[in-house]
Specification:
Elements: H1 5-27, H2 35-53, H3 60-85, H4 93-108, H5 113-135, H6 145-169, H7 183-220, H8 230-247, E1 250-258, H9 261-268, H10 270-286, E2 293-298, E3 301-307, H11 311-327, E4 330-332, E5 335-337, E6 341-349, H12 356-372, E7 378-381
Helix pairs in contact: 1-2, 1-7, 2-3, 3-4, 3-5, 4-5, 5-6, 6-7, 9-10
């Protein structure tokens, strides 16, 4: 038993128009994220199926040639939507090429139904394949459900189109034409209906996943420097300190302060100060390990969290960071701004009762000692006991100030 093809065509038209209108409402007044292009593609898809449903009652130039051109244009519009979503350029002529090809082929094969079916189905399968290829950079481990849903819907539709191509070439198409209710026709239009739903919902979920990711980034990342903000840096410190205490391991923490930062703001303006902050973050981030974390603690202070690291290793890295900042040049409006940092370091094993607050306090007190020692140097503490904090300077630290 096969589904009634005219009824399925009506379902496809209604679902495409309804989904297009819903997406148009979602896209109204929003940023350019491809939703408007996707809604356009659905409307072209619906219009193509309106012409298909008139097969035998309207001229073949409309129900065959123009209908297939509209389907080709609808897939091109979906490609434009994905490219715009990913911020990639998509020349408009990319839509004209498949449309012109389909128009010429459909007109040339207007009296050869099996060849028309095979050619059109193969062309649409290729367009969907290009669309799936454009999605590949987003189909990474941990990708959102939207990409997976969109890829699933399009992938199944492409397989059905390839099957339809093979059946047409093998002479298995129903001789009565498009509106005949046979297995291949029913499967083709059923998958077209499901693809409209799955792919469109997948695209909507993609936009939602992007918004969710943006919100997560805003909640965990410093807007100016792009590194972890105070909240997420403290969360990471609390997590690693608890792990070190539980496993009897080591953890190291640096508190990095830009020397005389207020003087930079007063002399060159706050935009210059912002440039210095970003410059220092870049120097720090380029020289730490993948598992380490650089975060902005507040103002001109940064935290560098080193899990599974003892004091000796942390001191070596801290001195390397200090020297790297001093030797680098921060350019601002044609000027080379000299920048140095003071670094307080704690490193060691954590015992029962030791907390992340004690780790931060020890590193912060070491930073105070570095400032008292003339800045542009490294001081360290290997004890969490407030009264027993010891300090050591990095080998021959420079005391040059800015």
């Amino acid at each position: 038993m096969h589904a009634d093809v005219p009824t399925m065509l009506l379902m496809i038209i209604i679902s495409s128009v309804a989904m297009a209108l819903a997406l148009a409402v979602v896209a109204w007044g929003q940023r350019r994220d491809g939703i408007a292009w996707w809604a356009t593609g659905l409307l072209l898809h619906a219009l193509g199926y309106v012409l298909f449903s008139g097969r035998g009652r309207i001229p073949d130039g409309l129900s065959i040639v123009l209908a297939n051109v509209l389907l080709a244009c609808s897939l091109s519009a979906l490609q434009a939507a994905v490219h715009q979503f990913m911020g990639r350029p998509w020349p408009r002529w990319h839509m004209a090429v498949p449309a012109a090809f389909i128009a010429l082929v459909m007109w040339a094969l207007i009296d050869h139904y099996p060849l028309r079916v095979a050619t059109a189905s193969l062309c649409y399968a290729v367009q969907i394949g290009l669309l799936l290829a454009a999605l590949r950079p987003m189909a990474r481990p941990g990708a959102g459900r939207g990409v997976l849903l969109l890829g699933l819907g399009l992938g199944v539709q492409m397989m059905v189109l390839l099957l339809r191509t093979a059946m047409a070439l093998w002479g298995q198409q129903h001789p009565s034409g498009l509106l005949a209710s046979d297995l291949v026709q029913s499967l083709t239009f059923l998958m077209s209906f499901l693809t409209v739903q799955l792919a469109s919902l997948g695209f909507v979920f993609m936009t939602r996943d992007r918004l969710d990711e943006g919100n997560r980034r805003l909640a965990t990342t410093d807007a100016l420097t792009g590194v972890a903000n105070r909240r997420s840096a403290i969360f990471a410190l609390e997590r690693d300190a608890a792990r070190a205490q539980r496993m009897g391991g080591s953890v190291a923490l640096m508190v990095v302060d830009i020397d005389h930062f207020k003087r930079i703001n007063d002399s060159h303006g706050h935009l210059a100060g912002d440039r210095v902050l970003c410059h220092v973050v870049n120097v720090l981030s380029d020289r730490v390990r993948t598992q380490d974390l650089v975060g902005r603690y507040g103002g001109e202070e940064f935290l560098v969290l080193l899990p599974d690291t003892g004091l000796d290793g942390a001191l070596v890295l801290a001195e390397q960071l200090r020297q790297s900042v001093q030797q680098s040049v921060c350019h601002w409006q044609g000027q080379a701004l000299a920048v140095t940092v003071s670094i307080g370091v704690f490193g060691g094993r954590l015992g029962s009762g030791d907390t992340w607050e004690m780790v931060l306090d020890a590193a912060d007190r070491a930073l105070y000692q570095a400032k008292q020692a003339g800045r542009n140097c490294v001081q360290a503490s290997n004890s969490l006991a407030r009264a027993e904090s010891s300090s050591m300077a990095a080998p021959e630290p420079s005391t040059q100030n800015i």
